[in-house]
């Protein structure tokens, strides 16, 4: 990597880290170009050069952390010996990520992320799918073994992650859910919804 490329990566990282800090401190309304450039010490021109706009910066931040979350989920199921154990590991990894990174998780589960997902759904889906193969192959392997019901990938994803995403959003916004309790209860409930024999 050339010195210029290295400087560019350092500048990008400064902007992404600053954007997350601004979001954590001031929320969506406070996530502005001026707030990020102040927090990062990086010029306005550099922000536009690297990301094109504040939306481009937020998209890059979402993509970075979505990739990390998906990587942790893939690692969790990769160590499991059967589908039921994998579901437990996936749920615990997701909720553990949310607890360890509440500010990032608020952004990933925010209305801003939903809006970006609707406006740029194809691009984000492509990024997500590029990082999903370990999870997808894990699911398909257990479908082939007869452990997981042969449902469409979209439906299996919704059954696996929908309840976990819902509980996470509630914890992040209202705080009235015990994530440790959810980690104990949800895996078995989710397993019943996707297991080939419904048990």
From TrEMBL:
This is TetR/AcrR family transcriptional regulator. Pfam families: TetR_N (PF00440). The keyword DNA-binding applies. Residues 9-69 form the HTH tetR-type domain. It comes from Streptomyces anthocyanicus. Keywords: DNA-binding. Residues 32-51 bind DNA. The keyword DNA-binding applies. Coiled coil: none annotated. InterPro entries: Homeodomain-like_sf, HTH-type_TetR-like_transc_reg, HTH_TetR, Tet_transcr_reg_TetR-rel_C_sf.
